[in-house]
Amino acid sequence: MMRKRISVSEAKKRLRVNIPLLLVLIPVAFAVLVPFLWMVTAALKPRGLIGEPPYLFPKYFEFTNFVVAWKAAPFIRYYANTTIVAIAVVFFRVVFASMAAFAFSVLKFRGRDLVFLVFLGTMMIPSHATLIPSYMIIINLKWLNTYQALIVPRMVDAFSIFLLRQMFISIPQDYLDAAKLDGCSNWKLLWKIIVPMSRSSLVAMSLFSFLFIWNDFLWPLLVANDKNMRTIQVGLQAFSGQYLTEWSFMMAGTMTAIIVPIILFVIAQKQFVSGLSHSGLKG
Amino acid sequence: MLKSIQTALQQKLSKDSVQAVFYLLPATAILLVFSYYPLISILNLSLYKWENLSPEKTFIGFQNYLNLFSNERFWNSLNVTFTYTSVVTIVSIAAGLLLAVALNNRYLILKSFWRSLYFLPSVTPTVAAAMVWILLFNPSIGYVNKFLDIFHIQGINWLADSTWALPTVMLLGIWRRAGFNLIIYLAALQAIPNEYYESAMVDGANPFRRFIHLTVPLLKPTTIMLVILGIIDSFLIFDQIMVLTRGGPLNATEVIGWYMYNNAFTFLKMGYGSAISVVIFIIIAVLTLLQWRFVGFGSMEDAE
Q1: How many CB pairs under 8 A join A and B?
Q2: Residue B89: how many CA atoms within 13 Å on its side-chain side?
Q3: Residue of B41, B136, B191 lying closest to A38 (CB–CB)
Q4: In CA terms, which of A68, A77, A272, B132 is 20 to 30 Å from B79?
Q5: What was the ipTM of the complex prediction?
């Protein structure tokens, strides 16, 4: 009897809290979603019907728009290019950042803090500001329109090193000493013990690097704007130049460029959110 | 005894030094070639007249800077960038904070659903989102004008209007940024001990007072971090300008990144472009130092 009364008042309380909150959250959610809904609806509309009165949920399902878009521009090629570059960048970032973070956390050498500071200093240098000389380097290496131009300059970033170092120094020293007593070399210590223990940091770092490459625009636009070497965002921009008035095809192309990050996020939301929260909080 | 410890330590130091060279070599090489060398290079190039990729560069001292500082378009681009940056940063932080407080309510249903949904724009590629923006704000068939029609408001050609083009671009920036701020705020809110609120409730503070006098001050470090990260992020705006307006109409959206890009890569004035780059670098470097001074090292999204 008593118990039931509590749960009723509890339910009332829940209702009292939720209704006003939802009255705010639902319209905001709607505003956030409008661009996505509009894109999907337009991408599935038959050509020529785009001027119809607005509705946000698809009424037609004209998948041939995608066929037309993919024929008009080599989106498959753009996908392949972006995937190759993203996977290579993530791989090198994991390897090189792990190695550097190992030096800054486990090894003891003179001037370590100074060298670490010099590394972190690169966070002050935005790639926008160094575009001109970076572009000249690519020209001089004759790397224009190559995968190297898209991969090599992005293989190392100071923030990944910082993040991994924070993770590595939190591993108890006893643990490392024990491994060393067993005759474990530094190389083995890093890859067999430290890296597996730091999986969550590495996953978050890899996800963000993948996303960064997938969404990147200015650098690939400069160094790889050949039809066969474009990454997805550059490809989309080139496509829009030709088809700006053909809205159904344009939105089909746009959806093609958006879908991978969205799927990645839906699959790995937990890692994204906790990775962000941690990197933000640790400060 | 002491001596032997000392030698052992020295041996370890020198052995580790050799190893450190190996472990740091790849990262050092890349950062030197693609970060530090270009930095020194823009400082150097900004002192030269160098146009059309010709093999010849003429040393002109600080002439590029003098030209820059006497050029109205440069000041306009700084002004546009600062306007964009302040509006986007303030609005997206306010929105992120309010949403985070709402989502932090322990009775709220579907918490992680809301959180993911609001974060979705932050993972969306800017170029693709800008494409959708063009269609959304299209004067004749765009959703925005059709929506305004319902209330008998005459829509305009948003992106071609020198008053409204910048706010339209800002809206995209806010849309992409608010969810990021929300996630960081939410994590900070969850770290506040519940006792603080309980004692405030005992004192009879209503929810609004609790928010103003407790939540906002407690979140101050997070807010400082988000302000600085937000400023850095918006200050480097480029992609959406290239897709949406190309700096127009009448330079109303000509941000400094676009001004630099245009001078360097459209008009091939590399020396002049380097001088603009140096200005961008100094502003970002000062902001980064401020961030380190106040909050330590930042968050992932802005590391690039």
Answers
A1: 301
A2: 21
A3: B136
A4: B132
A5: 0.88
Q: Which of B105, B221, B260 lies closest to A17 in CB terms?
A: B105
Q: Which class is domain A66-282?
A: mainly alpha
Question: What are the residues facing B58 on neighbouring strands?
Answer: B49
Tell me the mean pLDDT in the region B69-84.
95
Residues of A in contact with B141 (CB under 8 A): 50-51, 247
- Residues A75-122 pLDDT 10s: 999 999 999 999 999 999 999 999 999 999 999 888 899 999 999 989
B293: containing domain: 63-302
Report angle CA A158, B299, A147 to the nearest 5 degrees. Answer: 50
Q: Give residue for tokens 């636009």.
A: A221
Place A247 in a pLDDT band, splitting at 50, 70 and 90: confident
Residues B126, A108: C-beta atoms closer than 8 Å: no
Domain count of the fold of chain B:
1
Residue A6's pLDDT is what? Answer: 62
Asked if residue B72 lies in contact with residue A162, where contact means CB atoms within 8 angstroms, the answer is no
State the nearest Cα–Cα gap between B281 and chain A, in angstroms.
6
Whether residue B34 and residue A152 make contact (CB cut-off 8 A), yes or no, is: yes
> pLDDT digit string (tens) for A18-28?
888 899 999 99
Burial readout B86-95 (b: 16 or more C-beta within 10 A, e: otherwise): ebbbebbbeb
CB-CB neighbors (< 8 A) of A282 in chain B: 296
Look up residue A212 and give its two tokens. 């960064």
- The one-letter code for the residue type at B217 is P
Give CA–CA dist B283/B235, Å, rounded: 9
pLDDT at A275: 82
Task: Mark yes or no for CB contact B20/A128 under 8 Å.
Answer: no
Residue B126 to residue A134, Cβ atoms within 8 A? no
Q: Which residue of A has its CA nearest to B174?
A: A32
* Rounded Cα gap, residues B240 and B236, in angstroms: 11
Residue B136 lies in a domain: yes
Taking alpha carbons only, the member of B55, B79, B75, B57 closest to residue B67 is: B75
Domain presence at residue B293: yes
Q: What is the pTM of this model?
A: 0.89
Residues B50, B46: Cα–Cα separation, whole Å: 9
Burial class (CB in 10 A: 0-12, 13-18, 19+), B38: buried
